[in-house]
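Ticket #351: bound-state structure for iron/sulfur cluster.
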Amino acid sequence: MLDEDPKSVDQCARCGACRSVCPVFQESGWESAGARGRIMILKGLDSCLTPDSQVLDSLNSCTTCAICTELCPAGINPPALIERGRRQMVSKGVMTGQQRSLAENILSSGNTFGLNDDRLSWLKDRKLILKKADYAYFVGCMNSYRFAETAARTFSLLQNFGVTILPAEKCCGSPLIRMGFDAQKLVKENSRQIKEIGASTVITGCAGCHTTLKNSYNEFFEVKSVSEFLSEHISELDLRQLDLTVSYHDPCHLGRHSKIYDQPRKLIKAVCNLEEMKTIRESARCCGGGGGVRYGYKDLSLRMAKRRLSEVPEGVDYIVTSCPLCIRNLRDAGAGDKVIDLVDLLAMALP
Ligand code: SF4
Ligand code: SF4
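RESOLUTION: The complex was predicted; output attached.
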């Protein structure tokens, strides 16, 4: 993330360029649902105006997709400022009951679902967890509990390169941080385990985990997405060609936030045909699931996902992506099992 200096709120020229691309503004049409309106609200908060529920809705409905950052002529970074505004509100106790209970659940259970179930139920043999390793795969809550097969496939692929997992991984803290809460308890616990393993690189299979581990943890390890790591080892993968044509959805937190565009495409092209969506890379439309929006504003989130699906070329066999949050939102918006993780595609191409 770029600048979240409060002074940059004053740099907004109110040109409205951001309105043409904001996926939330496109659905709602309200000025307060776009970056420009949110920045005006942040100015009000900085002048000590009292926030009401509409202020909460305005700031909390940003998916942090950062497409506005890409084209803001004033060079400001609206989602970073919006997250700062969310922290201001939470620090004053201004939040929805839903936000409060999600935060409490995550902090007490260590996962976004508030579950006490085994996070490693997908792992056949716990002896595969190495005490010491250079690389650690950070599985994430979504893959641990909702896409366990993808977690198992990813770990099985990564094991060939001496990768281990954290013995008692907790939520990375992303939902808390995006919503404006403190996630230090989780950050400290995961950091302790990564240190104990001695891993110099942490490999993420979720775009939200990727941004969080990269920006909100101490920098004693490097963070790589699964697609970055595997694309570096592509010659060692023994992949075969598949008779498939797929499209790739750029997750905002891998794409615009971390500039990971080429690596997933390199892997896809190594196994099948890639037919691109209408908007891609820096201009890719958001799936609507990030920034806590899927949790707080499900209908709005699914409307954004539907619009994203309208950009998929006709006749593709699969919509491939690299983030379980995007997978869930695009599936729920009507694409069903046609949406798969990049690792699921690669698994089809393995001997
Ligand atoms: S594009 Fe940038 S300068 Fe223009 S209104 Fe949006 S945030 Fe303000
Ligand atoms: S980050 Fe995305 S959702 Fe948030 S204001 Fe910018 S364009 Fe809109």
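RESOLUTION NOTES: The beta strands are 135-138, 163-165, 201-204, 222-225, 245-248, 273-274, 318-321, 339-341.
TICKET STATUS: resolved
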